Amino acid sequence: MNVTKVSDDTYLLSVNVENILFEGLWEIPNGVALNSYIIKGEKTAIIDGVCGWDGVPESLFALLDKLNIDPKSIEYLIINHMEPDHSGWIEDFKKINPNFKVVCSKKSAELLDAFYGHTENVTVVTDDDTLDLGNGHILKFVEIPNVHWPDTIATFDTLTGTLFSCDAFGSFGNATESNYDDMLKSDDIDFYENEAVRYYANIVAAFSMPVKKAIDKCSALPIKIIAPGHGIVWRENPNKIIEDYIRYASYQKGPAKEEITLIWGSMYGMTEKAVNYVVKVLEEENIKFNVHRVPEVSWGTVLASAWNSTGIILAMPTYEYKMFPPMAAVLEELGKKKVFGRKAFRFGSYGWSGGAQKELDEIMNKYCMKWDFIEPVEFKGSPRDEDLQLIETRIRDLVKEVRNAVNS
Ligand SMILES: Cc1cc2nc3c(=O)[nH]c(=O)nc-3n(C[C@H](O)[C@H](O)[C@H](O)COP(=O)(O)O)c2cc1C
């Protein structure tokens, strides 16, 4: 666990979590930091939990000791949202400090009761309510529901201009003691930008409308620092992560970047032959592309790649009168996360009846995905030269469409 100073009287407690699936589902190859913050005015508040704390009082005592904080003096626990990655420590915290007061939204108060049976000393706050910690630290609350739980608030310290933004403006990627944009090199910033897209696509994407509303609401504040619940703290250039999040939200309906994501699966290598051919065509076209084989590549990786890409190529065979099942599973997830408005093309092998296309159409309709498809190419068994040539023509058409969509 790292303890670092964010600003006057303001500290970040950060814990890296690795070797788990985040939300029990998403692969996090570079880990994720869980951030909790302490503000020491005349009174002390902790914002969100220290979920990496092992529950042993002495280890938290030692940590707080570094900051000259007596755990019993923490008067307020501000819950920005009740997702257990931040709230899961509350019962342990009660063991060392039974008298703290909770400050949270109305919905968080309901969830606090439902999850942990905690109802005492709870103050419900709403937009523009304030909490005065003394020494100038007046905290103002902003409701930003559905980013990404319905109970979410952001907390703004009017003295330091710090927005404790909860899951908004977060990223994956382990933290170090240099967990601040002003302490990172541009390569590190690029690393966290990739981790932010992955975080956005996996965790927040389905809530892009609420994200836009939250950004509008928070932009009215005189923000100097953005301190999210995950990832790095933005002190030098908080506008960068705001602008990045505006961009990520806009990718939902497309166009996104001038990139193509090729998702493919194959049982016996027939579709794979055409995939190998297509990779060469894409290289010739000199467009950035990412290739993901399903089910080998995780949903989270495919989703992050698709979120960034204006063009999607799908390659899969027919399987029991439907499409190759791992492809259907990934497409369902893209539909649920609202990856809409892509330029797309599909090809694949079949044996006797076909059927993959029918299921693809069903998924597109079910989630109203509005992908603009070029006519598909299906071939029986192994692709012949004429099949490959037709596929090549359509891939080149797709590349043109992607470039037009991004540059028009
Ligand atoms: C388990 C299984 C189920 C299949 N079901 C169908 C089917 O319903 N309709 C069809 O036309 N072909 C079906 N096929 C044939 C495949 O689509 C065909 O072998 C195709 O060439 C496989 O391409 P791949 O090597 O890229 O996986 C099936 C093949 C397998 C192994």
From TrEMBL:
<dbReference type="Pfam" id="PF19583">
    <property type="entry name" value="ODP"/>
</dbReference>
<protein>
    <submittedName>
        <fullName>FprA family A-type flavoprotein</fullName>
    </submittedName>
</protein>
<dbReference type="InterPro" id="IPR001279">
    <property type="entry name" value="Metallo-B-lactamas"/>
</dbReference>
<dbReference type="InterPro" id="IPR036866">
    <property type="entry name" value="RibonucZ/Hydroxyglut_hydro"/>
</dbReference>
<feature type="domain" description="Flavodoxin-like">
    <location>
        <begin position="260"/>
        <end position="399"/>
    </location>
</feature>
<dbReference type="InterPro" id="IPR016440">
    <property type="entry name" value="Rubredoxin-O_OxRdtase"/>
</dbReference>
<dbReference type="InterPro" id="IPR045761">
    <property type="entry name" value="ODP_dom"/>
</dbReference>
<dbReference type="InterPro" id="IPR008254">
    <property type="entry name" value="Flavodoxin/NO_synth"/>
</dbReference>
<comment type="similarity">
    <text>In the N-terminal section; belongs to the zinc metallo-hydrolase group 3 family.</text>
</comment>
<dbReference type="InterPro" id="IPR029039">
    <property type="entry name" value="Flavoprotein-like_sf"/>
</dbReference>
